[in-house]
Design brief:
The protein is of the alpha+beta class and 399 residues long. It has ten helices and 18 strands. A twelve-stranded mixed β-sheet has the order 7-8-9-10-11-1-2-3-4-5-6-12. Strands 13-14-18-17-16-15 form a six-stranded antiparallel β-sheet. α1 runs parallel beside α3. It starts with 6 loop residues before the first helix and ends with a helix.
Length: 399
């Protein structure tokens, strides 16, 4: 079917579905995307009434699903080796922090295949569990309380939010988008006149009839080939999200329900009380220890340890530019020498991705994946985006 290209109506729909005010290619979104799947098998192509791309996007925007439970299969194929022990080093993990801390634990979604169990009952009750062969990690948001529990270490992490219920963030306690709905919101919010929307047939996901919305960049230079979203025909809820790279091959990100129920979960689903002997870490106490060990945190509005963010370009070829502080070891990264404090396995991981480049900006190293490329210059600047290496160097020259 023809692409949805009405700019006025598209703009109105984008505003309606906006959940996050961040371009898809900036560092935060790029990092989040790394935290996410190969395509899940569809079980049929149902015969559904015809629908335009505009109508399907409006259907997603109008969806009022607030209660559901189910199982999500998520897989990431960035073409990277397993992060293993390097994950905490690359994401700033602290050896003194709790193993149940969501900021550290959710980085495990950065590679491989994972099975998640999810449940939601409105804005103030959600639960996410990562299921392993012999253990389970759960993140529970229930009113003003956020609990995380790691059964492997028998450790729990607790945070409290005293704001009024209406002011609490829906994904309180975590930043990484892991459900098809969260991923869809990010992509549609960031789309503009640089994007083509089409309806690409139908599918059956988790026993539900669904339409397939296909989103493609119109710009050259993006590493994104297409995003395909399976949308529940009845409720408008995204059931599956697949991101394929422009280079071809397996999907980089594929997250989808294998089971889903739109009934209200039992209230007991969101109950949690640590058992006797469980080590409990309070978020405010850990934050105080972190401040003592690492000094005051940056001002609000700045990313940790970096100067202000600048976005070069727009749409799918947006590139984030930022300046690392002088003591960050950025020059060491670009030259291949390990910065102080970086674990050896993390440095080895980075070295395996490095590719020396030069341009008007000077010289530096590009670290590449199938989706996100990052250029660290020898003078301590960082350029990152879901763009090709050539597009990244061009942006650095322009910056």
């Amino acid at each position: 079917m023809a692409p949805y290209e009405s700019e006025d109506s598209q703009s109105a729909v984008r505003r309606k579905v906006t959940r996050y005010a961040v371009p898809v290619a900036v560092v935060g979104v790029a990092a989040a995307t790394i935290g996410l799947v190969p395509a899940l098998a569809d079980s049929g192509d149902p015969d559904l009434p015809k629908i335009t791309a505009q109508e399907l996007i409006e259907k997603i925007a109008a969806s009022d699903t607030e209660q559901l439970s189910g199982t999500v299969k998520i897989h990431t194929d960035l073409g990277l080796p397993s992060l293993g022990g390097a994950a905490s080093g690359l994401t700033g993990g602290d050896k003194g922090s709790s193993s149940a801390d969501p900021q550290a634990k959710l980085t495990e979604l950065a590679s491989g295949t994972h099975t998640l169990r999810v449940a939601a009952d409105g804005q103030d009750r959600q639960k996410l569990s990562i299921l392993d062969d012999a253990s389970e990690y759960s993140l529970i948001h229930n009113g003003a309380d956020v609990w995380a529990y790691d059964s492997a270490s028998d450790e729990a992490y607790h945070a409290k939010d005293t704001r009024p219920a209406g002011d609490r963030a829906k994904k309180q306690g975590r930043e990484v988008p892991v459900t098809p709905k969260e991923l869809t919101d990010k992509i549609i919010e960031a789309s503009g006149d640089t994007t083509s929307f089409t309806v690409d047939g139908t599918a059956q996901i988790a026993g539900r009839d669904a339409y397939r919305l296909q989103i493609k960049p119109k710009q050259s230079g993006s590493t994104v080939g297409a995003v395909t979203i399976a949308v529940d025909a009845k409720t408008g809820t995204p059931l599956k999200f697949t991101l394929t790279p422009a280079s071809g091959g397996a999907a980089v990100v594929d997250a989808g329900f294998t089971k889903v129920d739109f009934g209200r979960p039992a209230a007991s689903t969101f109950d949690f009380k640590p058992s006797k002997g469980t080590k409990v870490t309070e978020a405010d106490e850990q934050a105080a220890r972190d401040r003592q060990g690492h000094g005051a945190r940056p001002d609000a509005g700045q990313a940790d340890g970096v100067d202000g963010l600048n976005v070069i370009g727009k749409g799918w070829t947006s590139v984030a530019e930022l300046k690392l502080p002088g003591d960050s070891g950025a020059a060491g990264l670009a030259s291949g020498s390990a910065p102080g404090g970086m674990p050896a396995d993390a440095q080895k991981f980075l070295d395996s991705l490095g590719d020396k480049v030069t341009g008007k900006f000077g010289s530096g190293t590009v670290y590449s994946t199938r989706l996100v490329n990052v250029l660290i210059t020898e003078d301590g600047k960082v350029y990152a985006g879901a763009v090709t290496k050539d597009a990244l160097v061009k942006a650095a020259d322009a910056g």
